[in-house]
Amino acid sequence: AQSVTQLDSQVPVFEEAPVELRCNYSSSVSVYLFWYVQYPNQGLQLLLKYLSGSTLVKGINGFEAEFNKSQTSFHLRKPSVHISDTAEYFCAVTLPGSGNTGKLIFGQGTTLQVKP
Amino acid sequence: DTAVSQTPKYLVTQMGNDKSIKCEQNLGHDTMYWYKQDSKKFLKIMFSYNNKELIINETVPNRFSPKSPDKAHLNLHINSLELGDSAVYFCASSLARGANTEAFFGQGTRLTVV
Questions:
Q1: Is the pLDDT of residue B68 over 60?
Q2: Does the beta-carbon distance from B107 to A42 stay under 8 Å?
Q3: Counting one residue from A and one from B, how many pairs have CB atoms under 8 Å apart?
Q4: Residue pLDDT, tens place only, A48-60
Q5: Which residues of A touch B56 (CB under 8 A)?
Q6: How many Cα atoms are found within 13 Å in the side-chain-facing hemisphere of A28?
Q7: A82, B76, B94, B110 — which has fewest CB within 10 A?
């Protein structure tokens, strides 16, 4: 079975500082990897995804993530955060291949709190 | 235009009642999902339909019954509501059932059972 672990439940950071949100996954087969963001009282929005190819993936709002197969990690980074980045961030995986359903398996979420 | 819309946004009801949550997508997608987000913000899939066919049915009490009258709609009916059903329910859709297609989420329905 697949699982996703987000190592930090809360990450406080000052505005304009860099940030890294950590995500590790467990799977005996290859997976596709995603980061979603949830702003207060809203649905989830896709930030970026890794399917194949270059291990450094760039997404919206200046975020990027790096897939590391040996460490089974997919950490999210941003070099300089804004107050508006305050939100809940979810790492997720799905299974590629025939018979896949697009079912997302989520981590527990990380609350990013950007302080002025 | 809202891509994935859910109604109602908030739902407060008493234990034992039956309620429905409606979801509609105008993206032309084939696949729709229901996810449950608990009080700790953990998200878990409940159901998925692809072109009106049920393709995912996780371990969910049979008091929960999804219905897809057409591929643009996926409704969730809950019988005999319990306190533990209180959560935020998200509808989502994706172009196809493939795992590399982005899922678009609705704004959620916050269900409170009292």
A1: yes
A2: yes
A3: 73
A4: 999 989 999 999 9
A5: 101, 103
A6: 1
A7: A82
Task: Quote the tokens at residue A34.
Answer: 């995603």
Q: Are B23 and B15 in contact (CB under 8 A)?
A: no
Q: Which residue has the tokens 């009801």?
A: B13
DSSP β-ladder status, A110-115 and A10-14:
parallel
Chain A residue closest in CA terms to B36: A106
Report long-range pairs for A43-47 (Cβ below 8 Å, ≥24 apart): A43/B4, A43/B90, A43/B92, A43/B105, A43/B106, A43/B107, A43/B108, A44/A90, A44/B43, A44/B90, A44/B92, A44/B103, A44/B105, A45/B105, A46/B102, A46/B103, A47/A76, A47/A89
Q: Which residues contact A84 (CB under 8 A, 6 or more apart)?
A: A114
Torsion angle defined by CA atoms of residues B27, A106, A6 and A59, in that order, rounded to the nearest 10 degrees: -20
